[in-house]
Design a protein that fits this description.
Layout: E1 2-3, H1 7-19, H2 21-39, H3 47-58, H4 63-73, E2 83-90, E3 96-103, H5 106-119, E4 123-124, E5 134-142, H6 148-158, E6 162-166, E7 171-175, H7 180-189, E8 196-203, E9 207-209, H8 211-225, E10 230-235, E11 237-239
Parallel strand pairs: 1-6, 9-11
Antiparallel strand pairs: 2-3, 2-4, 3-10, 5-7, 5-8, 6-7
Helix pairs in contact: 2-3, 2-4, 6-7
Amino acid sequence: MAGHSKWANIKHKKAATDAKRGKVWTRLIKEITVAARMGGADIGANPRLRLAVDKAADANMPKDNVTRAIQRGTGGLDGANYEEIRYEGYGINGAAIIVDCMTDNRVRTVAEVRHAFSKFGGNMGTEGSVAFLFKHCGQLFYAPGTDEDTLMEAALEAGAEDVITDDEGGLEVICGPHDLTDIREKLEKAGFKPELAEVTMKPATETVFTGDDALKMQKLLDALENLDDVQEVYTNAVIEEE
């Protein structure tokens, strides 16, 4: 099935991630710590930890950092006790936003998230106010020029739910959130290395932003993403490059 072009946004996300490597490592350490605490240190028996360790490898994080984070999570090392919190809200023109946080101070985190929303033209909503507009799933993105028929056959055989083609020829493989690592491995063995692979909250519909509204929306998203306690920001807004 065809879909809206999102290739520019994917490249932008990759570039932004690379530019903030130190912050990315900090977020991954939190994720690994919490994943190990909740599901144990065995990567083979803990899909969430396995995914976090794979992301750490993609971000070129030293293995020692990963090992220490796992030990911290399982009680082998002292460290902060993080809890997961999700906030929901609205951006410019009512665009839906989900903000996933890990924090050792809930009061600080909610104040910072609320301030970012209000300062940049958005507002926080109640729990469940926008989450129903998103699907929790795994996503793998492949660059334009990838052999669509061969990838689709390999993806569906590997257990993927759908393969979507965007307007520029980029391909998006959708799968269950716990199936991402397994499907990624199978597709890489078949010769398909993704540009980006992640567990995400995928919006059911998208709102395209251009001009001044696009700039305002991007400022709000950047303000949220730059908060220390924020792990991920999901939105149904698509920022079009002029």
